[in-house]
Amino acid sequence: MTLGAIAVTSLILGFSGAMMPGPLLTLTISEAARRGMRAGPLLIAGHALLEATLVILLLFGLAELVQRPPVFALIALIGGTMLIWMGYGMVRSLSGLSLDLSADEQEAVSPLVAGALVSLANPYFTLWWATVGIGYLTLTIESGWLGGVTFYFFHILADLLWYSFVAMAVSRGRTLLTDKVYRGLIASCALFLIMFGGYFGFCGIEKLLST
Length: 211
Fold this sequence. Notes:
Blueprint: H1 3-18, H2 23-35, H3 39-66, H4 69-92, H5 111-120, H6 123-140, H7 145-172, H8 179-209
């Protein structure tokens, strides 16, 4: 894959995961109501530090294991299946999907620490990196370490852009992000996940057949 292709697909894949409701989104809404727009970037900074640790482990040793054809094929097939399942689930949830921008009163914590802890405590986060994250990073590092760095940068950029936008929407009101617009974004991401999941699974089968 070229660096340009890695950048574009990593950005879209990052948006696909970031936009779905979860603990980090809930915390962003709550903290943005209290701290304003800066809550988004602060939370993502903590989230990014955690993901940087995972990427470094993959680039310096662990990736060598997952690059073995049988291991890579297994991860790619599981990851591809997960992406298709996620995309299908996103499509099914569209009719009742709503981005609740109301904030609950919670005890204030450091956004930097909270961003990492909430991500680490999220089973979906662990599952995503154990399948899709590892598999896709393995694809990108075929372009060398620069491919891995490009993947990480644009993956985090998607998180930063989305959660900063959510924080701004909370601090300024619902006019910036209606449920209709939100559902349209989710539908687009769902289509990408299904298509990319098929490509990911194909890569796994191809690798397995080439051994």
